[in-house]
Amino acid sequence: MTPNNDLKILPPKIDIETVSVLKQLNKSSRALAELKAYSELIPNKEILISSLALQEAKASSEIENIVTTNDSLYKAIAIDEKKIDPSTKEVLNYRTALWRGVELVKEKGFISTNLIIEIQETLENNSGGIRKIPGTALKNALTDEVIYTPPSGEELIRQLLRNLEEYYNIETDIDPLIKLAISHYQFEAIHPFYDGNGRTGRILNILYLLKEGLLESPILYLSSYIIKNKGLYYKLLEEVTINEAWEKWVLYILKAIEITSRDTLELAKNIKSLMDITTQEVKNKLPKIYNKELIEFIFTETYTKGSHLVEQGFATRKTMTKYLRALEEIGILKSEKVGREVIYINVHLFNLLKGS
Fold this sequence. Notes:
Keywords: ATP-binding, Nucleotide-binding, Plasmid. GO terms for molecular function: ATP binding. 63% of the residues lie in helices and 5% in strands. By secondary structure, it is mainly alpha-helical. The protein has two domains: 19-267, Fido-like domain (Fic-like fold), CATH 1.10.3290; 286-354, Orthogonal Bundle (Arc Repressor Mutant, subunit A). The strands form two sheets. A three-stranded antiparallel beta sheet has the order 3-5-4, sandwiched between helices. Strands 1-2 form a two-stranded antiparallel sheet. Helix 4 (86-108) packs parallel to helix 8 (197-211), helix 5 (113-124) crosses helix 8 (197-211) and helix 10 packs antiparallel against helix 11.
C-alpha cells in the first residue's frame, strides 16, 4: 500500500455541519457544560483530576494493548520505581505526558508542533521525534494485513503538522467540538511518530478542550468510550480516509463527548459523596486525629504511605503511622506490605474507581 502523501490539508472542503451533527452537537455541548460547572464547585480539584487522569492513562494505553491492572497502577505510585513492571511504567509515562501538556497549554495558550513532539517524547521516554525513515505501516493485529500507510517524508509530515497546528489555533465559525473531531482524525492520519501516535492524539483532545475554555481542568477523557467501541473507531477513521465520510466520524466523537461527560459527572459526584461520608465518619469516630487536609490527601492517590504524609507536613513519622493505623481500624484504609514498605489503600475509593 502506497503512503497517503495526498492527505488533504484542513479544513475539509465539504459541509460537515449537517442536521444530524448539529443535533448531536447540542447534546454533547450541554453534557460537557454540566461537567465543567460541577467540577468548578469541588473545593479541591486535585482529588478529581488525579483519580481521573490515572484512569484515562490506563484506558488510553489499553487501546494500544498496553495493559496493566488498577492494583499495579496504584501501587506503583507508592513503591520504588525499580519494582514497577514495563506496562505500568508506560501508563505512568502517559500521565506524566498529559500533565506536561496541560502545563504547556496553560502557559502558552496554544497547541504547537513542538508541544506535540514533547508529549510524544515524554510518553515514549525517547527523542526519536518526527518519522524520517520510510516504511511505517499500520497493520491488522490478527491478520498482519496492512490497513493504512501514513504520509512519508519528514518535510511533508512537518508541513501537515503546521497545517494542523494552524487549524487547532485559528478562530473559525466551526464549533470547537466539531473541530476536535476533525483535528483528531487528521493527527491520526498524519501519524507523525514511529510510536505513541494514538496516545498522543488522545492527550491532544483534552488539551484542545482546555485551550478552548470548554473545561478548566483535565477531567474529560474519551478513551473509556473508545475502548468500548474500538472496532467502530478504527472503521470510521478508515472511512474518512477512503470516502471522506466525515459525518459518521464527527457523530462518533460527539457521542463520545456526550457519554463520557455524563459518566465523568456521575463519577465526580460519587467521589465527592464518598469523601463527604469519609470525612463525617472520621469526625465521629476519630475526632482527635481528624484533619480536613489529611482526608483530602488520602483521596488524591488511592495508595499512600507514611513517608508521603510526613513530606506533606502532616506529622512526624511515628505520629503518622499511628494515624494511618487508626484509619485502618475503622475500615477507611487497608495496609499491605510491599517489600520493606507498608502502603495503605483507600479501600472504598479503590472499589469505586475499579468499577468505573
